[in-house]
């Protein structure tokens, strides 16, 4: 799932949400929000298993997770006190690729993952090449000090459209982002019924 290269517009339409944010995929969802291949208005009615599976697919595609990684996150929070679903999404939101996307460095999460793997980003002055790196409160993200890389991300900012969440501060002049707090339920950007996903994973 982390390396999904198929038609992104089809995933958006199938799941009925803006999962992939590329321009073409977003426009396809706006034009036709019905599932692909379903010519009856409203499509088919899903079973409880089908609904849970669809919600799980939303999380996997949105955050770029594989099945094993999603289950790993679930097992990390399953025995902790509090709402398991919220804690699961908190882990997803704390991923380096997600924070880079939400801070406004990139337009999409795949772009953020590509930049991380290529060594474009540092956390607290140390190069990190793992998109799944879990950020902690106070961590600072900066861009590698090379002019072509700096200009690349400056160019993204010049296009506008960034909507930085409250749990991240971002300085567009220095290309520096700081995780101000651990993201909570009000910070989650994916509309998903995570509770039925937790029930699905607990089987």
Automatic annotation (TrEMBL):
The keyword RNA-binding applies. The keyword Electron transport does not apply. One of its GO terms (cellular component) is small ribosomal subunit. Keywords: Ribonucleoprotein, Ribosomal protein, RNA-binding, rRNA-binding. One of its GO terms (biological process) is translation. Residues 94-154 form the RNA-binding S4 domain. Transmembrane segments: none annotated. GO terms for molecular function: rRNA binding; structural constituent of ribosome. Residues 3-93 form the Small ribosomal subunit protein uS4 N-terminal domain. SUPFAM superfamilies: Alpha-L RNA-binding motif (SSF55174). Pfam families: Ribosomal_S4 (PF00163), S4 (PF01479). With S5 and S12 plays an important role in translational accuracy. Part of the 30S ribosomal subunit. Contacts protein S5. The interaction surface between S4 and S5 is involved in control of translational fidelity. PANTHER family: 30S 40S RIBOSOMAL PROTEIN, SMALL RIBOSOMAL SUBUNIT PROTEIN US4M. NCBIfam families: PRK05327.1, rpsD_bact. Belongs to the universal ribosomal protein uS4 family. This is Small ribosomal subunit protein uS4. It comes from Anatilimnocola aggregata.
């Amino acid at each position: 799932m982390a390396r999904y290269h198929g038609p992104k517009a089809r995933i958006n339409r199938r799941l009925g949400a803006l999962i992939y944010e590329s321009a073409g995929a977003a426009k396809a969802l706006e034009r036709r929000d019905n599932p692909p291949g379903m010519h009856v208005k409203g499509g088919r009615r899903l079973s409880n298993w089908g609904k849970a599976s669809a919600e799980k697919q939303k999380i996997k595609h949105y955050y770029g997770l594989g099945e094993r990684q999603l289950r790993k996150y679930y097992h990390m929070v399953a025995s902790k006190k509090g709402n398991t679903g919220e804690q699961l999404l908190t882990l997803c939101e704390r991923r380096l690729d997600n924070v880079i996307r939400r801070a406004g460095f990139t337009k999409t999460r795949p772009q953020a993952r590509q930049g991380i793997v290529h060594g474009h980003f540092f956390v607290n002055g140390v190069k990190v090449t793992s998109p799944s790196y879990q950020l902690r409160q106070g961590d600072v993200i900066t861009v590698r000090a090379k002019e072509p890389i700096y200009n690349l991300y400056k160019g993204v900012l010049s296009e506008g459209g960034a909507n930085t969440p409250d749990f991240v501060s971002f300085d567009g002049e220095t290309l520096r982002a700081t995780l101000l707090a651990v993201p909570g339920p009000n910070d989650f950007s994916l509309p998903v019924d995570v509770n039925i996903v937790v029930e699905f994973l607990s089987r």
